[in-house]
Each structure stands twice: as C-alpha cells, then as structure tokens.
Amino acid sequence: MKLLPFIFIILICWIQLLTHTAAQSCEGRCGGKLAECSCHSTCESLLSCCPDFKQFCLEISPHSGSLLGGTDFRILNVVFNLSSVLTCRFKSEIVTQGYVDGDGVGHCISPMLFESGWIPFEVSTDGVNYNRAGRWLSVHHSKLSAVFKLLLVNGTHWQYYGTPGVGGILLMVWNASLINAERVNIELWGYEETGEPYSDHWRSDWTYLYTVGKDVPNNGAFSFTPKPSEKPLANWDIGSMRVSPSTTSDGARNVNALWSGAHALAYHLEEAFRGDSAGWALEKCVLWDKEEKRIPSFLPEITDCPCTLTQARADTGRFHTDYGCDIEKGSVCTYHPGAVHCVRAIQASPMYAAGQQCCYDSTGAQVLTGDSLGGSTPDRGHDWGAPPYQKPPRVPGLSHWKYDVITFYYCCLWSDNCDYYFSHRPSSDCRTYQAPKAASVIGDPHFITFDGTTYTFNGKGEYVLLQSAAYNLTVQGRTEPMTSENGSVIMATRLCSVAMREKDSDVIEVRLTDRPGHLQVLMNQQELSFSEQNWIDLKGVFVFSAVPQNVTVMFPSGAGMEVRSRGGVMTLTVLLPLEFNSQTLGLLGKMNDDPEDDLTSSDGSVVQPSASTQDIFAFGAGWAITNQSSLFTYDRLHLLNEYYFAPKHDPSFIPNFSVTEDPADPLLEPTLRMCSGIGAQFCKYDTLSTRSLELGNSTLLAHRSHAATMQDLQPVVSCGWLKPPNHGQKEGTLYLEEAKVSFSCNKGYRLHGSQERVCQADGRWSGDETHCVTDDILGIVLGSVGAILALVIMVVAIVLYTKKQKRERMKDKGDTVVYQPHTVNL
Fold it and tell me: What's the pLDDT score for residue 577?
C-alpha cells in the first residue's frame, strides 16, 4: 500500500508527458505531495527520485529561521541509525555538523548566510555521499517570529548606552528550548562591510568580538552591565548578540544559536564616545558625508513615494508596511518621530539595489525631511535586501544598517547634524508618483475590469484572467459550481483557485480549502506554510500572508495580487502600474482607459459591454486555457477528472443568466433591504441564485472594498516641498492641491514675494518665491553705491590735478609741451 502514492504520481507525470505537456510539467505541474519527494517539483525529479529511492527529499521542522544561522531543525521523514554521523551541506558548499538524537531523529544546524529565501541543502551519513536533499527557508530578522530570535529588552536603551544619562543594566531574553544545552555562552559579534563600494571586492562579514556571559544557565534570560573591553572595538559600530551552548568554543560558527537583530553597539564604543558623544558622532558623520560624496548616487533611480497614507496602503503591489513603523501595531516609529505609518518599496532599485521608505503623519500626509526629523528617507541598502543577495549592499537588513541606520545615529541621534544626513537621504515627494489601476473578481463570479466595466461570467473551467506579453505575466483562474446548504448544485460558479507567474518566477497558486476562511498557497505545487513567518522571499516573487484568509503576491514588475476568502468564495484584486497600459488582455480586460474594448476576445474581436449575457458568456469561454499553458496543480482525483482530462471550459454547464425577483419569495424582502448602493445588482444576483444572504452580503462588501480601493488610488496633484525663507518661517507642511503655505520673517526682516502660496491644479505653486530682507537693506545698498562713486571721482580729480601740475612745471622751464590725450583706467 505504501507504493500506491509513488505509482499514482509517476502515472500522472507520464500522462502529462504523453499528452504533450512536457515543458509545462517540468516547471512543476505534475502535482501531488509525496512525503519522501516533497521538495521535487518536476516530473523528471519525481522519476529520478522515487523509483529507486536513491535520493529522498526531506521534510523538516522548523522549516525556517534567521539568515544568521544557528537553528537546530529536525528531519521528520527519515529514521537514522543512532551511530550515524550526519553532515549537512547547504548550497553545495557550506557544511555544518548534524547529529542523531536518542529517538533516531536527524538534526541539522542552519549556517550563517547573507541571503534570504529558499536554500537547498543535502544530508550525508558518511561525509561523502549526499543522497538526501531538502530546502531551508532563510528569513530576514524583522520578518521572523519573535519566538525564534534573541530579543533585546528595551532596544532604545541598548542603542543609546554610553551617551550622557544612559547606563545601567542591559537585558536579553530568548526561548530556552531552542538551544540544546543546559548552559550557554552569551557573545557579541560585529558586522562590517569592506572593500570598494559597488566593486567585485566589496565584502561583508561577521567577527566574534568577545564573550559577555560564560557558562551561564540556559533559563531564557541574561542581563549584564557593560564594561570597557581590553580589545579595540571602534571598528564595529553595529553587531548582534548570540546565545549558544557553552560546550562550543568562543566564536565558533554555524553552531546551534539564537541571534538578536542588528543594533548600534553604543555600549562598547571608546572613551571618546563616552566623554563627548556628540563630538565623536559628528566626526563619524563627517567621514560618512565624504564617503557618500565619493560613491555614486542612487537617488535618481529610486521610485517616488505615494502622496497619501491611503495611497501607500492601497498600492500593495509596490509598497509594503515597514515593520519599524506600523499603524496596525501601535505606530512605534523610533526612527521617524511624528509619523504613524511607514511603507517601503518592495523591489530594490535596478542598478544600486537601493530602497525607498515613505512615512505619513496622523492626517495621512507624507512627512518630509525638510520639515521633520521623522521624514521619509531613501536607503542605499534596501532593508529587505535584493537578489542575488550575499554581497553589499544587497545583504538583507545588514547593508541597510551599515549605510543608512548607524549613519542616522551619527548625524541625527547622537549629534545634532541631520543636515549632513538629509543631504544624502532627502525625502522623495510624490510629484512623479502614479497610482496603479485595480481590477477585481468577486462573488460567483463578477468581474470589474481595469477600466471599470462590470459583467458576470459563470463558466466552469480554467481561464486566463490576465496576460501581458510585454511583462510575461500570466494570471489564471479556476471556477467551480457552487452548492447549496443541502448539497445540491447551484447553476452558478465561484472562483476557487488562482495561479500566477511572471517571467521565470516560481509559480504561485492560491486556492480555497474545506476550512472556512482558510486559503492554501502552493509554490510549484508544494504547499507553503506561514506558521513561522508571514513573508516569504521566492524566485522572482514575494508572498505575504499575515492571516489564513488573506494572501498578497508581489512581482518585480510592480504587479500585485490580493486574494481574499470571504463568505465561502474567493475574491481577487489585481493591481498594475500604469506601465501596463495597453499591455493586458484576458477576462480582466484591456487596461487603456477605454471601457468599450474591455471585452476583447482571445481572437481579437470585441464584445460590447452592453451585449447579451449569452454573448458575454461566449466571450468568457473563449479565454479558456490549455493543458500546455496551465499553471494549475492537479493533485486530486476530481481535479484530474473535471479539469485536466475534461474541456478547460465545460460546455455542458449552463448557468442561470438571470434571477427572478418573485414578490412571493420570502428571501426577496431581506435581499432588497440588504442589497443597496454600490454592488447592489451583484448582491441581489448572488443572494437569490445561491439562496444565501451570507454570500450576497460578502459580494456586497467585496464590491464596496473594490470601490474604496479605487477611491484610495485616485490621482493626487502635488506641487512639491517649499522651503522656508532664510531669516523666516513657514506655516503648513501639506503640499497637495489646494494646500496653502504661509510665510513670515524674523524681527528686523521684511518679507518680499508672496506671503501665502497655494498649490494649484497644474502642480505649480501660486505667487512668487519668498525672501526675508532687512528693513534698511536699500539704504545699505545705496550707501555702498554712493561711496564707490565718490571714490571714483576723487581718483579722477587726483589724476587730473597731477597732470596739470606737471605741465606748469615744464612751461616754467621753457619746454615745448605737446598734449597727448590720455585714457584713465580705473
């Protein structure tokens, strides 16, 4: 019986190959989850892995941990001999020592890495033959669950330690069960990046500095009072604490350990810092300023910020919550005082891998560094790193700390010299920001195109929702018939699965499950778990899922897919940047601001939105996919029978194209009472056709949510930042259309130009630039001019008098004088 799953999956692979789907199969379409082969996603892999059992694909727990390494993870699907000596090899080059516990369970230790995402690893029992393989998820520290890291209690106290008025005890806590030892060492490690920036010789590394606590009980907490070290430590201004078994040697790498996040090492800086922290920090700030002037500027290539908080939170394809300033978690914005929420550009800039950060105040307006210490700041190192990671400035978190965070301490927090910092990290305002456009699939299902056309298509099958040849982006949807509470089939369908890929990215599929409100996420047919972290870096795509009913998928093009489970149906919202204009086809329509051609068929013909429901049904059927182009997984028998071996559009399924509003229907009155305003028509159809007020209400809320998103993404005119005049002030920090900024001058100065300026609809400020000048500035100018003229006259008089005296002397001597004209040069 144990061989049946193997045989079943292999048969599926061969069937696909025999039906001319080899190319698609090799990219992960063969389906199934096999315990020993769960990490293989292609039929070739299954065929090479499963029949002879020479290579097993390992299931592990936990499946993720900090990219700094040290996680002890268990191998679940293999029993090892107690005498086996395990060796674990990551990326075919980094070797760590594993072990077998008393129950025959194998363990590996994750290594120190400089990248996030899935890391392949292999296991050997003889140190030579690595015949078992798996994958490990390396996670950025800020995206890792708190239970899996060393926490610094009161991080601000740690990072200001040594500055005037800050001292005393420092405390750290951790989950003691994650360190396989009764006693532990507490160590401090320093991080640095060396070599010429943006060259092949740019390197990053960790260095063991010293042990804070030696052979202390592993009780999950440790505190200490920092003391001056005998070692010179000024080269390391940032680093991390590490707790590891006391049986390991000091500074040993790739051992079972927990790490804190990177932080400023203010508690061990030299006496110059303690004696004059502001002076010491200013010197560091000036050195950084000189280095920034020497290396290339990344500012011209970073994306512009959204104008408002609502835009920033709605543009989920290009921006994501900054974990250090999140309005959903109390807006603890340590580095952005006055802000309530910040977002980061998801994708790093193309050449320099730089990041963009945008912060907003309680009114929803963007905070700019020209007005506030808490303003938005771009980053030379994107906080979340950038593929291919590993080398500066692409190392997740650490490059950002090196070039953007610790320098903020130097210039702004440890000294009052933020002008240096903001000259290299000025806020990007939103004058060139262009909001994306949104399209949605809601209810059973109804479509809202990018240009606002609405229609209903209740076909059963697998269809192209969106395709863009220019960006090689494909989004496909699977629909299935709905059932009533008594189990009978309803002649309407619902979206039950969405699969997507951009270029050569991993294929992401999100589908409904039998658990209400829960979505399943597959990557190349294999289920992704979000139990240990809610953000996963994958090949050419990021996936975020904070709760089981919501999934957001983000591609490098800026395309974002939001999938929600509501009322037993799936809702999809697709967000596309304006670069996709005239570059889309499919059931979500052409994105070109022309609703009349939204229903463009796969053959190029256009169906008018006012066409009959039967014609629109035929239009939708024409967008059925093929087995060769399918991105879906067929890992269940009913999926094979109903979708893989059946027509991609089921011609036998004829939905109800309309519903009758029968006054005698007891459901009509509550339906009409509930379904009003935006989305009322879809709400009535869904409620009456499915006999479910819950579904109708879900459709209504989904439609209203789409409308709210469209409202949030409305274009906003910005006139850009206005600086206050020298020797004066300004009132107003909002720079959007109709905003007013007024100016005043200090005592003894008079205002020239416009006292108030208004942001106009054309993106320009009204009035003239404002200056503050002293009241007697004109007298000073006229006095200076008069003095110069008097000097000129005096010089001319002296020259002429001297010539006259010379002629008279020569005449007295009887000489003949011939006068030659002169030009006097002054």
Answer: 98
Residue 439 one-letter amino acid? A
Q: How many CB atoms lie within 10 A of CB 802?
A: 9
**Contact predicate 634/643, CB 8 Å:** yes
Q: What is the per-residue DSSP string for 497-510?
A: EEEEEETTPPPEEE
Query: 437-650, superfamily in CATH?
Result: Mog1/PsbP, alpha/beta/alpha sandwich (3.40.1000.10)
Amino acid present at 517: G
Strands 170-173 and 60-61: unpaired
Pick the closest to residue 76 from 139, 134, 118 (CA basis). Answer: 134
Q: What are phi and psi of 83, to 5 degrees?
A: -85, -5
Could you report the average pLDDT of every consecutive run of 10 residues in the chain (826 residues)? 44 42 34 36 38 60 95 94 94 95 96 95 94 93 88 90 89 96 97 93 93 96 84 81 96 96 87 87 96 96 96 97 92 90 96 97 95 94 94 95 95 94 94 97 96 96 98 98 84 96 97 92 94 93 96 98 93 98 97 96 94 95 97 94 96 92 93 93 93 93 96 95 95 96 95 96 96 71 52 59 58 43 33
Residue 70 class from Cβ within 10 Å (0-12 exposed, 13-18 middle, 19+ buried)? buried
149-275: same fold as 58-139?
A: yes
Provide the residue ranges of all domains of the chain, joining segments of one domain with +: 1-47, 58-139, 149-275, 277-424, 437-650, 728-774, 781-826
Angle at 607 between CA 606 and CA 613, to 5 degrees: 165
Tell me the CATH number of domain 149-275, given options 2.30.130, 3.20.20, 2.60.40, 2.30.29: 2.60.40
Looking at residue 40, its pLDDT comes to 39
Which of 177, 178, 173 minimizes the C-alpha distance to 71?
A: 178
Contact criterion met (CB below 8 Å) for 698 and 705: no
Instruction: Tell me the fold of 728-774.
Output: Complement Module; domain 1 (2.10.70)
Q: Name the superfamily (CATH) of residues 58-139.
A: Immunoglobulins (2.60.40.10)
CA distance 330 to 321: 13
Distance (Å, whole) CA 697 – CA 490:
18
Pairwise CA distance, residues 408 & 431, whole Å = 26
Q: SS3 for 272?
A: helix
Residue reference for tokens 């395309």:
559
DSSP state letters, 150-166: -EEESHHHHHHTTSTT-
**What is residue 806's predicted lDDT score, i.e. its pLDDT?**
56
The DSSP element (H or E) to which 461 belongs, if any, is strand 461-468
Q: Token digits for 344?
A: 């980061």
